[in-house]
Specification:
By secondary structure, the chain is an alpha+beta fold. The chain is built from 5 helices and 8 strands, in the order βββαββββαβααα. Helix 2 packs parallel to helix 3. It starts with 16 loop residues before the first strand and ends with a helix.
Length: about 170
């Protein structure tokens, strides 16, 4: 993922919905016994092309989720959505997780597993075919999915990058 490809978004004027992807109870064994804490990965989005993810850790579940939501609001990206689907096929990898996203025709729905589904629904994609290959670790799956969405480019962006007209992008 190149640095110039990511489009950061301001959160001040956006209504964001959060989705809890995964929560784990983490145990630390000390001399005095076991200490339990919670780790939560959360995805936020406005269901209209903006999405972000965050990780929160705390001694209580609600505090961990709240910290995850705050972290997610700091990492928002803008994703191009065309007619309820993504503009083109995209493959991405993060650590051991690999994801494949393919555009789908209207009426298909979101064909994706748990962690990927949360990200795709938060960004507002209505029709997409998604495949998870490799590790099913929710942390890595969310990061790989967001990476794939960040690398998507629509025709207008491609025309601007190449310095040509929009018709030349399609006609070659």
């Amino acid at each position: 993922m190149s640095a110039n490809n990511i489009k950061k978004v301001r959160t001040s004027d956006i209504e964001l919905k959060d989705r809890l992807v995964s929560i784990q109870r983490v145990t630390k064994v000390t001399k005095g016994g076991r200490t339990f804490t919670f780790s939560a990965i959360v995805v936020v989005g406005n269901e209209n092309g903006i999405v972000g993810y965050g990780l929160g850790k705390a001694s209580e579940v609600t505090a961990a989720i709240a910290k995850g939501v705050e972290d997610a609001k700091k990492n928002l990206i803008k994703v191009p959505i065309l007619k309820g689907t993504i503009p083109h096929e995209q493959v991405a990898k993060f650590s051991g997780s690999r994801v494949l996203l393919r555009p789908a025709s209207p009426g298909t729905g979101v064909i994706a597993g748990g962690a990927m589904r949360a990200v795709l629904e938060s960004v507002g994609v209505k029709n997409v075919l998604a495949k998870s290959k490799g590790s099913s670790n929710p942390h890595n799956l969310v990061k790989a999915t967001v990476t794939a969405l960040a690398e998507l480019r629509d025709a207008v962006t491609i025309a601007e990058t190449r310095g040509i007209s929009l018709t030349k992008v399609f006609n070659g």
